[in-house]
Specification:
Layout lengths: L1 H5 L5 E6 L2 E2 L2 E2 H4 L5 H6 L5 E5 L3 H19 L2 E6 L17 H8 L3 H11 L5 H24 L19
Amino acid sequence: MNLTALWRLPVLFCCENNLYAMGTALDRSESETNLAVKASSYEMPAWAVDGMDVGAVEDAARRAVTAIRSGGGPVFLELRTYRFRAHSMYDPDRYRSREEIEAWRHRDPIDLFTARLAEAGLLTDEDRDGIESGVAAEVDAAVAFAESGTLEAVSELTRYVYSERAR
């Protein structure tokens, strides 16, 4: 971020702030939890946006891209969101209450956005069912493709980790 600000590079930094660093709440590990404030210390425009609101994210991204394309240098967006599941399959997720998770579920961005589209008459239940079926089919096809592939040879696993120099 420092170099992009120094050189005024056209970069959009998007930080998905889900309030936790693995299993530690942000307010337990950071004295300043407003990550946009931290980013602004690099002398670049930075602001937070409700990451659970698809429209707000689109508006903020458009504003940021416009600034970048006009030669304004880098911009940092903090997308304040929430993850509904544990950090990984090995995470027992005991650091959050069920009530906290459930309260955030009422702000699910997909549910809120589809409800907004339905209210505007832009999405029917049939449309949504069709989209969900199409996505499920695409995911199933991708999983089948991956599972039918061949495993990489162990000898190749570290290839390209370091440059391959001519000897």
